[in-house]
Amino acid sequence: MAVDGGGAWLAMAGAAILCAGAGLRFEPWSREYAARLRAGAPATAGTLWRAAGQTYRRPVRWRRDGWGALATGGLAAGLLALQGWAGLALLPLGLGLAALAWLDGRSGLLPDALTLPLMAAGWWLGPQGLPDAPCASIAVWGGLAAAAGLYRRVRGRDGFGGGDVKCLAMLAGWLGGSAALAILWGASILGLLAWVCRPGYRLRAHPFGPYLALAACPWILWPEAAGAWLTRLG
Q1: Amino acid 159: pLDDT
Q2: Cα dist from 213 to 9, 102, 126, 175, whole Å
Q3: Angle, nearest 10°, between helix axes 132-155 and 112-125?
């Protein structure tokens, strides 16, 4: 949707700045959450949001925490510049994915307390609408959970975490089932590249959430181009 007038651009710049301010807290939030889990706190909604509350009472350390502000502010600014007012509806998805990437990177978990509300928000705010969005989430969730269960049965170990399945179901609710599967493919390629390029990475399990967030960016910023590419690929 086109944006007209200096006031509109000013409002969108303000939204991007607010997103950057929220992103400034994602890195310390992830550190606090991971520290609480290591100390024996349960991986519940209470632990997640208490960690957030503790983080927001602390002073900002720009040199260490500024990457979150740059990432979320840049994503928000790009989204609003490319999609205008229509991009406002996707801001919760961009912010939520950024938070999930930081949390998973530090703790190895994609918390249900954030993923599931984002999924429900996508059913109402995403471009698909009802009933297509919930159906896409259910289809992706069920299919990937079945595939993960089969892998576990055959190999005797987990190959795909339950949090990753729910995150992809959340993305399906926002962007569609085909987009979610394309994001899974892209994230797998990014994870494979990290595994190849960083030998030390091969010796330990690594979180998949950051790769999902990176692979989702084209579908958030350029959904038409990403969809056209997927159609040509098929």
Answers
A1: 62
A2: 26, 10, 17, 13
A3: 140
